TrEMBL record:
It comes from the Eukaryota. InterPro entries: NF-kappa-B_Signaling_Reg (IPR051703), PDDEXK-like_dom_sf (IPR011604), Restrct_endonuc-II-like (IPR011335), YqaJ_viral_recombinase (IPR019080). This is YqaJ viral recombinase domain-containing protein. One of its GO terms (biological process) is DNA repair.
């Protein structure tokens, strides 16, 4: 499908857009039920169904970091019709995610529950699927795990010191933290805002042990749609979400 084409009138586009958005509308009760009914994520057909209709937090970094020279329609097309089926790196991450989740629970001394798909309270076309929910007194934390195959021979600290964790940096206290300009940070903040949780435990796991856990606090995101009025570089089909800190 070519999203560069512009063969729909403005009135038809607005009408179809409103119908689409109306069909996505859910109540708070439905949002809570959908999150529970979609636990299992990739192995759950309901999760695939609800996710396919929404822009999820995993894409926030890609969208928010678009440059002026980048094609908006091409970005939309890549998101809507993503043909990537995974490779050895993604399979490695998937195969080790449960090991990491269990180790996080032991390290934190907390129980980790599986998560389904969260839908934004008012912007029902936005969704997020954290890697877990941390069982805390206030029930207010989520979990995001990364298992990079490229650092499996290192501990996370060794990998950082050898320049292999480009998405991490060191703060003034010498602690490793997620870079705020990295796409993973946008994903974490998107997940926090959509799930309405306060904290996210971001975990880097390797088989060498000594997992790295960073706790990020939610920052309020202002979410709006980029206006396409009088902007020829945008197409009617290019109704891209912009995330503004």
């Amino acid at each position: 499908m070519n999203l560069e084409s512009n063969d729909m009138s403005s009135d038809d586009f607005d009408r179809c857009k409103q119908i689409f958005l109306n069909n996505l509308a859910v109540t708070d009760e439905q949002r809570a039920r959908i999150e529970r009914d979609t636990v299992g994520q990739k192995n759950n057909d309901l999760w695939k169904q609800y996710k396919s209709q929404r822009l999820t937090a995993s894409y926030f970094g890609r969208v928010c970091k678009l440059r002026s020279v980048d094609s908006r329609p091409k970005c939309v097309e890549n998101i809507l019709y993503d043909s990537f089926l995974g490779d050895r790196n993604t399979r490695y991450g998937i195969n080790n995610e449960e090991n990491a989740r269990q180790q996080v629970g032991k390290t934190l001394g907390k129980q980790i529950h599986l998560s389904g798909l969260f839908i934004h309270k008012t912007l029902h076309y936005l969704g997020a699927s954290p890697d877990g929910l941390v069982d805390e007194v206030d029930g207010d934390s989520i979990l995001e795990i990364t298992c990079p195959s490229s650092i499996q021979e290192y501990t996370p600290r060794e990998a950082f010191e050898n320049g292999k964790l480009k998405f991490m940096t060191e703060n003034n206290e010498g602690q490793l933290v997620l870079k705020e300009e990295d796409k993973r940070y946008y994903q974490v903040q998107g997940e926090l805002n959509i799930s309405e949780k306060t904290y996210c435990y971001f975990v880097v796991w390797t088989p060498k042990g000594n997992i790295f856990v960073s706790r990020s606090k939610r920052r309020q995101l202002k979410l709006r749609k980029e206006s396409i009025d009088d902007k020829p570089k945008f197409d009617k089909q290019n109704n891209i979400l912009k995330c503004i800190k």
